[in-house]
Amino acid sequence: MPLFLPSTFPIRGSEVSSDIQQRFLSLGLTLPPAPAPAGVYKPAVTVGRLLYVSGHGPLLPDGTLIEGRVGRDLDADAGKLAARQVGLTILSTLLANLDGLHRIHRVVKVLGMVNCTEDFTRHPFVINGCSELFAAIWGDDLGIGVRSAVGMGSLPGNIPVEIEAIFELA
Length: 170
Fold this sequence. Notes:
This protein is α+β, with helices and mostly antiparallel strands. The protein has one domain: CATH 3.30.1330.40. The protein is built from three helices and five strands. The protein has helices spanning 18-27, 76-97, 123-143; strands spanning 44-47, 50-56, 104-115, 146-152, 161-169. The protein has a five-stranded mixed sheet with strand order 1-2-5-3-4, covered by helices on one side. Helix 2 packs across helix 3.
């Protein structure tokens, strides 16, 4: 099953500015459902003009998660695709918590965690999957923020990537 399926933008009316909508549509990607919390936390919290998004995993459109450890079960390219899928999952959460992506002014920070083998060192390459998606949607100036990419010995459910993000609201 492919990780990304062609689709239309799954929202109503003019909730998203036409530029953002067109950028998303040009990518030919499908958003997964917004995930429900898997513990005692909120998926997103707004404080002032900042929107903090909890850690997300690579949820597929059918509701299943991509699993595996990068460097053992997945190579770096598959890990990068998983990180892109996490970015799509974050977009779903944004749409579930805001009245549209036009409410996002810019990406402030991305923290990417890679479930990887001890000898794997390409963490930034993997997290580029999410960062490149955000840049494709909001542009290089507003879609790229500060970032950390770190390796982990494990992640919940054996997911290959978990990403949390901070956005500035318009």
